[in-house]
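Same chain as my last thread, 456 residues:
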Amino acid sequence: MVESNQRMHGTWASRWTFILAATGSAVGLGNIWKFPYIAGENGGGAFVLVYLLCILLLGVPVMMAEVMLGREGRMSPVNAMRFLTSRAGLHGWWNSIGWLGVIVGILILSYYAVIAGWALNYIFDMANGSLQGANGAAVSKHFGELLASPGRLMFWQTLFLILTMGVVIGGVTRGLGVAVRILMPVLFVVMVILLFYGASQGDFDAGLEFLFSFRTDRLTWAGVLEALGHAFFSLSLGMGAIMAYGAYMPAEAPIGKTVVTIAFFDTLVALMAGMVIFPIVFAIPGMAPDAGPSLMFQTLPVVFGNMPGGLFFGALFFVLVTIAAWSSSISLIEPAVAWLIESWGLNRIAANLLLGGIAWVLGIGTVLSFNAWQDKTLAGFTYFDALDFLTSSIMLPITGLLIAVFVGWKMAPPVVFAAMEDRMPRTLRLWYTLLRFMAPVAIGVIFVFGIYNKFF
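reply #2:
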């Protein structure tokens, strides 16, 4: 069954294609939007150092386990877990790992497409000159008008979902593989261009100081926990995407080295994003580098609109954001597409249309959360807030925890070590120890902290 499903889906053309695909899955709005401002708010270099440690001690071990599960099963996360659970003689309850990954991917895609649609909209707003010379009040009004229009939001949401489905319909080699070999190099090229622009037109020294200076007085325990949580979410863990991509991984590729490379590129993008954003923000006096979530869609458009060549480079920046979101979104829908192909016998076109339609319908609730339904709340949650909380604070940590426990405690160690095929036994044992003991505790902390932050 494993071999037949491998023939059904195919494999990545090379180890580097898998690295680009998994990096594309990991690199998303969180790297370019969230990481820079939370790093700046929580002590700059002190936060970055803690974040890197969290990536190494939590992110990499769990990602290695998820990739291994995918490559061992060679199927969608649902059927891979069925196969591995059955082979290990375990209760079918463990299949929930696969189901949670597939379901959370579609739920996240439903609101991710709406937010990514904002970036698509801003590409055209920058390019047509509508934000030329705009001040803070004008940009705030402009953004508010976008959010107040369900029709505009649904248009951009629909366009983004069409872009996503268009890639996944092509399959592993002709769709996903070709896309990541184009999108990821383009993303890095655009980022380097923007980096040079920020260095020449912005206040590069102030930007670097804000991002990298060690302000230990600003790093609280809440900041450490935020670094821990972001390290987990930044690598797309628990979404089914990495397990699905691992199913297409060449058998001879070393998992450990490959995952470390992915983590390196993912972190590099996050750091480069900060080095792009903050020099540009500091170029205009009075702009707040710690503006939080509004940094991307309200602060940066003001700055770009008042800098030499700013509209062109502003449009280029939102192209960068869209590419990052696009490379992530294709990985969110792929696990469910693979399952429909395997279990329902659908072709890729039908599977994508069905799942894209479901994500689109679910996304309407997110669209309306910013206008018609913004006052309709349950326990203080709008529809969008509830969906975001359910996925990021409940489902993802639970899935990650189950992966760590399943591989670390339920699979037989000889099976795990054989599946990893690592020629460095000491490194492998260190990974296994981190996965068994540190990862469950760290993910449990993320879970409790996420709930505490919402309700207390």
